[in-house]
Sequence to fold (143 residues):
Amino acid sequence: MSQTHRTTIRGRKGRRIEHRREITSKDIRNEVGSLGEGVGIVEAARGTLIHHYQLDEDALIKKVNLIVATTNNASAICMSIRDAAKGLIHGGEVSEEILNMVEMAFRAYDPCWACATHFAIGQMPFELKIYSHNKKLLKTLKR
Fold:
């Protein structure tokens, strides 16, 4: 590491790990192993990304399990959307500006979600259901 910018990296148990070769090595790929099963975990821009693959005897994928950041963040996203809506919507009246602000609550977690849906279908689907204090549905807004 550079002398001008030194960062202390600590593992889960608080031990310094920046000096460990497996952390700082430029060799980041494992050698190809035998056919079967493999898991890859990486910290991506939106959060932890987990890939789990199973291959058959012909090296064809027979099972895939992807756990993406959106999955890991789903409950927090829902709570943020709920809290934003509660703080911004009063008397059941919602303008396009308020709808945009509520939408920002999930974009803060996953900005790629909006772009991916724009690319796939041309417009990001968005549905907002407004409930009264006694849980009666007052209005549904879609775009």
In short: The first helix runs from residue 21 to 24. The chain has a mean pLDDT of 76. The beta strands are 37-44, 47-55, 61-67, 127-131, 137-142. Residues 31-69 form one domain.
